[in-house]
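Our working data are protein records whose layout never changes between entries. Getting from the letters to the tokens is the skill we practise here. To make this concrete, we reproduce a full record directly below:
***
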Amino acid sequence: MRQTALPCLFMRGGTSRGPFFNQDDLPADLATRDRVLLAAMGSPDKRQIDGLGGAHPLTSKVGIVGKSRRDGIALEFLFAQLQPDKDTVDTTPNCGNMLAAVVPFALETGLVEAQGRGPDGTSTFRVLTLNTDMACDITVMTPGGQVEYEGEARIDGVPGHSAPITINFLDTAGSVCDGLLPTGQVKDRITVEGAGFEPFTIDVTCIDNGMPLVIFKAADIGRSGYESVDQLNADTELKTRIEALRLAISLKMGLGDVSKKNYPKMTLIAPPRDGGALTTRSFIPHVCHDAIGVLAAVTVGTACVLEGSVCDGVAVMPAGVTKHVSVEHPTGEFSVALATDPANPQNVTQAALLRTARLLMRGDVMIPGSVWPGKAA
């Protein structure tokens, strides 16, 4: 049986990468669509040798983009998280890194047309993320009506410099959970029991401002928070305790059994080392992130402005209503601009960040015909 050619653009979005598809080119049946995405990425296989995946969760991601028929929304984006060695396609969480490539993809494929075409032209489109029903305004540089990828912006985790892409999130609270503070508390104390470790009691902040997170002090679990990614990934005892905590606290967050889900992410915090607000080590959820996810950084930054959270007394915060929160991570920092309501400083009214993206390859990914013969078949 012949293979099926499926058009896609292979793109880097922030510190992630993967193929982007027009939703109209994919099967309408969700089960078939998921089989197609698994075949495209080469999962399940820890090397993903028979597909486009990069043998890591950060490079096992897919973007699906389409024009929107909703008032005030230009584009709709569905993010799919695959795993190298699993046959799962998770469209529950969002991904702010891959989100950065949505408007460039739409412009490259003609889903939308550039607005600003002068030498300093920019184009802004409102994008709805279907995973979490979250809208944002994304601005890219479009001199001459074309996407500009080269520029002076720099983000940690990506070499060199690129054109800036600004993402202004409009309503991120409760993206997956039922509200910003899913337990109803800014801080919870929980006792965790399980096989292979002594029971322990720990304070956590459960929060969802774009990504469900469980935040806790590294010192409270016997670590400094400055360990390397390799050290933490090799720390089996720590990972066992963190997973037991994740499974237990998720019930209080209203998320049910998350043993087969990629959220909530688990974030260790410590005082800043390099002039930022605080240091983080983020598990996504079983592997320590080389950096920190976009929406995880937004959510951590939000926790920093909430009085009484576990970040209170750890984070070094700037003054003012609008706070530029620098979230340190293993390979650098991630800055988030957070605006708060002067009448209620715990009410975050705006969360904006800067990312970059680049088109890496244009073409067709080949899918075995036995998986899907294509729409014309």
The chain has a mean pLDDT of 94. The chain has two domains: 4-164+357-367, 188-352. The chain is about 15% helix and 35% strand. The helical segments are 30-41, 96-99, 102-109, 229-233, 236-252, 294-304.
